[in-house]
Specification:
- By secondary structure, this protein is α+β, with helices and mostly antiparallel strands.
- Among the domains are: 136 residues, Nucleotidyltransferase, domain 5 (2-Layer Sandwich), CATH 3.30.420; 200 residues, Carbamoyltransferase, C-terminal domain (DHBP synthase, Alpha-Beta Complex).
- 36% of the residues lie in helices and 21% in strands.
- The chain has a nine-stranded mixed sheet, sandwiched between helices. A five-stranded mixed sheet has the order 3-2-1-4-5.
- The N and C termini lie far apart (48 Å).
Length: 574
Amino acid sequence: MYILGINAYHGDSSACLLKDGVVLCASEEEKFRRIKHWAGFPTEAIKFCLEDEGISIHDIDHVTISRDPKANFSRKIIHTLKNSISISTIWDRLINSKKVSSIKGELAKLFELPESDIKATIYNIEHHRSHIASSFFASRFEKSAVLSIDGFGDFTSTMSAIGNGNKFEVLDEVNYPHSLGAFYTTVTQFLGFPNYGDEYKVMGLAAYGEAKYLKELEQILEMTDDGFFKLNKTYFKHFKKGVAMDWEGGSPTIEPLFTDEWCKLLGKYRVKGDKLEQWHIDLATSVQRFTEKVIFHMLNHLHKKTGAENICITGGVAHNSVAMGKILENTSFKNIYIPSSGHDGGTCVGSALYLHNQILGKERLPEITTAYFGRKSNQDEITAVLERAEVRYTVYSDEELFEKVSNKLVEGGIIGWFQGRTEFGPRALGHRSIIVDPRRSDAKDLLNDKIKRRESFRPFAPSILKEAVEDYFLQSDNVPFMEKVFNIKEEKHKEIPAVTHVDGTGRLQSVDKNISPRYHKLISKFAEKSGVPILLNTSFNENEPIVNKAEEALDCFLRTKIDMLVMENVIVER
């Protein structure tokens, strides 16, 4: 039985393919379109999934989409009438909902078929139920509490549940217009980071300041006795005006959500390009700490309600790795699972798993421990790309390759590392990575300025052998998807300055030899020469989606100052 799962007409449009409940492949549309967070119908991701498995749309039994226009319909009507939402905003939402409801037509158009030829059954799965399924059904836990937190989806921003076996029960939800994700987004916009998905910049900036604005933020968001929160409508435009968003095939946009009251409370908002002043940095620190406090508040209430030892977390806020790394120390939960793609892109998998487990009643399958579900380039394709570009290359055996690359790293080289399947999710995990010796004190400035061309405050992650985590980090946990930030032992700060953030933390990826054998082998080879079982890992890109194909890897290599490009067993050097 084949299930095609899609996230469409929303940020991070994506598609996946399941066979008898097993995820075979998955990708965000952005990786093909080369536009970050691409929103629309994921035509290229769908075609990739079918071609990867060697099947056609006729072989698909079921199609799921992680949106349900009927969800919370009465609440939407009441809110619209009560607040006199603008006609243009209402019209945009109606158009979007109509497209979500016409999936068969979109598939027929994509494959140039009559709609009657699409035999698959279509299921609209509510947004946050898709999020919850993407985490709980992918975890190893037989029983677990689940919390989904994001901006908005199907008129809901937060949902809690208890999962047991192949079913979960929704416990509570927070509805529009109240949203922790929208709160963080609003501060992000106020600080002069206007693009969709810029919240991670605020998280990185937060390490440089002091939390001086907690009292002010308490006026904007209030934690409630029911274990949730509410926003003060004075500070948010969307309470009265709705949210002007564009999900129509391209980079998604959301208009600024903050009102003039923010400026009265905090000062003038920063325009993109303005100098970052210390009070901006302190505000970033404050919103990060305050958001963590709200997350712990919700989780502790959920623990009291469920008594569960395990917690699954999903939704866009699940990618706040600083907060995720503090959960077990600040709540009563003992174990945690966070998927590689907790953001909206992951709901394609979640909607498909919801159908397989929750609706069809099929048995759970083993934990999803890998994110390598994307496109793969074979060696013949790679060499053909290089020959067309008239670029000289050498093909090496495995042993020769790992020896040569590890030597280059020790010598201070910057490596573009392109192996196997592209990662599903927003983070490079050793298949589409730029890697560097973490002992280099100049690596941060070099990469930010000369390679990534991004803000100087942005940190870089340590990929560490799973068996060496306890030697370098104060907390010990399996972190396969780079989903948690932990404290690096103080005596190790000088040893690995390139991956030690200004506050002494690192967003680690624990590398398992059974899941990432080639990456594990490279780090091991580097450790033999350097004594350090860690590599600096950042995504293989330059202000664009992570490279997906060999052509994109070569292009990024040629226009930046990467020293060596390694694609499978092929090496290109300057």
